[in-house]
Specification:
The protein is of the alpha/beta class. 41% of the residues lie in helices and 18% in strands. The strands form three sheets. Strands 8-1-10-21-20-19-18-17-16-11-12-13 form a twelve-stranded mixed β-sheet, with helices on both faces. Strands 4-3-2-5-6-7-9 form a seven-stranded parallel β-sheet. It has a two-stranded antiparallel ribbon with strand order 14-15. Strand 11, helix 8 and strand 12 form a beta-alpha-beta unit. Helix 3 runs parallel beside helix 4 and helix 16 runs antiparallel to helix 17. The longest helix is centred in the C-terminal third of the chain and has 27 residues. The two termini are 19 Å apart.
Length: 490
């Protein structure tokens, strides 16, 4: 797994490395050398340097380019840091004559290297910097940001004015803001350069293909349907039957390796659901005009032999009654339970029920649902999704899969990020498909945290692969449901 750090953690690792005997100017030189080695430099090049150490990286890069017979124009914005001044003096000693104030830049270059702000930048750039950022973005140049696109918050990926990079070359470890919120859109292609900074702390792990592949060993021949668990889906209501979605979830559970699946729905809707399923069994429980009502005997009958359950999809807005069902199940069944959609809105009426749960619980909220669960504003969550997901998971002893541009999975101990998702998943039903895949993995005995991050990775990967056929506009959740098994067998 790839390591992800906050900007404070990165500064700490940098400081520890310097204290360990590597001078900061040497680290700056290594950054510049790695950036230089990352490509063949052709055409006209401008390096725009701010006053911090990020600007020093740009000055060091100019010196290395000059040593190799390439002479970029260097534009300065304000005073330099101590280390930046060191490399400015090096250039002066070499008689380098291509250093100019930013006011003389016309932005007409083949390549612009952005070294204005480093990862420590927060808030809104002053107007003179915002104007330069706007001009960089309007330029025809290929834009390379060193460490982070200038103006982007390195922790949460939010910005007021930010360089929209074609490529970002970040130092040693990815920063969380490169993946969260708008980070992926502003970063362009991302590469990570190793300059010898030690790892002394971290915020999260980015899940990679090999991490997911390890959860799918080759199966023995001597197995049967019971070997791979029995899962159940509890959902559907009067004004949202969700029959096709429930069927798709059942299909996903089986496609991702589950052995048996049951769909539990209001009794009056059983025939509607039966018409859309082939592989799943359908069980009806008591309802009131198509909506679930709390029926202990019916629930007990439906959950016989079930080891994993997804609840909430299409349950409707009778949240008080839904909450009774959820509370009974999680308090009395030591099984694995995914709570999604209307189940989350019902849970929000009494989140404290989680503290008395026998079940192992996975919550799959988007930001608004998370806001209801933790009583924080959407803005607060967007500003710090990693910490909020982690602290909620720790307090309530659950696994949280917080959906977003990059999803965050936290279990109170570790945090994982799924960074391979894209706009192709921005459709109603994608969350249902995700829960279905996760359900199948849980039923096979894969632990909740691993089931959460691997199912999120798989659905994102399959959807991305399907864009080659359907484009990011045309991929449907049902396409993902049918194709999920293909990626598992690769």
């Amino acid at each position: 797994m790839q390591k992800v750090l906050t900007t404070t953690q990165m500064a700490y690792c940098d400081s520890r490395t310097i204290d360990g005997g590597i001078p900061s100017t040497e680290l700056m030189r290594r950054v510049a050398q790695a950036v230089y080695d990352s490509r063949v430099w052709q055409g006209s090049v401008a390096i725009i340097c701010g006053k911090g150490n990020n600007g020093g990286d740009g000055l060091a890069l100019a010196g290395i380019m000059a040593d190799n017979g390439k002479y970029p124009r260097v534009y300065l914005m304000g005073d330099m840091s101590k280390d930046g001044r060191y490399y400015y003096d090096v250039l002066q000693d070499k008689g380098y004559e291509r250093i100019y104030p930013i006011s003389e830049c016309d932005y007409d270059f083949d390549i612009i290297v952005d070294c204005i702000f480093g990862t420590g930048f927060k808030g809104q750039p002053r107007q003179q910097y915002a104007d330069v950022i706007d001009k960089i973005n309007a330029s025809r140049a290929y834009k390379i940001s060193v460490d982070i696109p200038s103006g982007l918050d390195g922790d949460n990926g939010r910005y007021v004015a930010c360089v929209k990079a074609d490529e970002t070359i970040t130092v040693q470890y990815a920063k969380s803001g490169l993946y969260l919120n708008d980070g992926k859109d502003m970063t362009g292609s991302l590469s990570i350069i190793d300059v010898g900074i030690g790892l002394y702390t971290q915020a999260a792990n980015v899940v990679e293909e090999k991490d997911v592949a390890a959860l799918f060993p080759r199966r023995k021949h001597n197995t049967h349907k019971g070997t791979f668990g029995k899962s159940a889906i509890l959902g559907g209501c009067g004004n949202y039957l969700g029959a096709v979605r429930l069927a798709n979830m059942g299909l996903c559970a089986l496609r991702s390796g589950g052995g048996l699946n049951v769909i539990i729905t209001p009794q009056s809707h059983v025939n509607n659901v039966l018409g859309t399923v082939m592989e799943s069994t359908v069980i009806g429980i008591a309802d009131d005009r198509g909506y679930f009502v709390f029926d202990r005997q019916g629930i007990d009958r439906a959950l016989q032999g079930v080891d994993s359950l997804a609840i909430g999809m299409g349950m409707g807005n009778r949240y008080s009654e839904n909450a009774k069902i959820i509370e009974y199940i999680v308090a009395n069944y030591p099984i694995k339970v995914i709570i999604d959609a209307d189940g989350l809105n019902s849970l929000a009426l009494n989140v404290e029920m989680l503290k008395c749960a026998k079940a192992q619980i996975i919550l799959t909220p988007h930001v608004k649902e998370m806001s209801r669960l933790c009583d924080k504003s959407v803005e607060e969550i967007l500003d710090d999704p990693i910490s909020i997901a982690r602290s909620f998971a720790e307090e309530y002893k659950v696994t949280v899969l917080l959906k977003g541009a990059s999803s965050v999975i936290a279990d109170g101990r570790q945090v994982y990020m799924i960074t391979n998702g894209g706009a192709e998943l921005s459709k109603g039903g994608s969350g249902d498909t995700l829960s279905g895949v996760m359900l199948g993995m849980l039923s096979q005995g894969i632990p909740p945290t691993e089931s959460a991050y691997s199912s999120a990775y798989l659905t994102a990967r399959v959807a991305k692969d399907l864009t080659e056929e359907y484009s990011e506009y045309g991929v449907l959740p049902s396409d993902v449901a049918r194709a999920i098994c293909k990626i598992i067998t690769k």
